[in-house]
Amino acid sequence: MSLTDRLRRALDRPAPKGLLAGDLVDGEEHITAPVPAAVLVAITERAEPGVLLTVRREHMRTHAGQVAFPGGRIDAEDADPAAAALREAEEEIGLPPAAVRLWGEADPYRTITGYRVTPILGSVAPDLPLVPHEAEVADWFEAPLAFLLDPANQRAVEAEFRGRMRTYYEIPWEGRRIWGATAAMIVNLSRRLHAWS
């Protein structure tokens, strides 16, 4: 069975123990009500599938310069998280919604910036002519799915933030640093995959 088939099957199973719930630490959960958001985990249909990721512009108010999945806040006109993720992917990298074959939702993740992010998984044809949105996205790239999901490539790092020690994950790949919520959602996909393989 292929890696993508195994991942699709794992999405249909109950959530395993050990998933990362969010960036918050004890006592911070009720600081603010989370803002619903969604991201698109677009997996390319290759013999060795990849994942489309963006690099946010340096001037952005939040997560400047970070690697991220295409996505953002769920707007009132969005029917559901999938609709929001598809809309944002089209806005950010010119990915037409009709080009995505949706698989389903993965486990939500609560960010320290106040979002509750639902990852939406789907597959896309390889080598689509994507164009980053000039004001929001500096670049986009494709990283190998197998590399991202390999626990050996996922490093836990501790750092002080707002006066508290926090643990986050990072996945270095070809000079890129995938970290924070994006890496955490990848770690959750990896844990879900390995729990049901």
From TrEMBL:
Keyword Hydrolase: yes
Superkingdom of source: Bacteria
Domain Nudix hydrolase stretches: 34-169
Co-factor requirement: Mg(2+); Mn(2+)
InterPro entries, sorted: CoAse (IPR045121), NUDIX_hydrolase-like_dom_sf (IPR015797), NUDIX_hydrolase_dom (IPR000086)
Keyword Disulfide bond: no
Swiss-Prot/TrEMBL keywords: Hydrolase, Magnesium, Manganese, Metal-binding
Protein name: CoA pyrophosphatase
Organism: Sphingomonas rosea
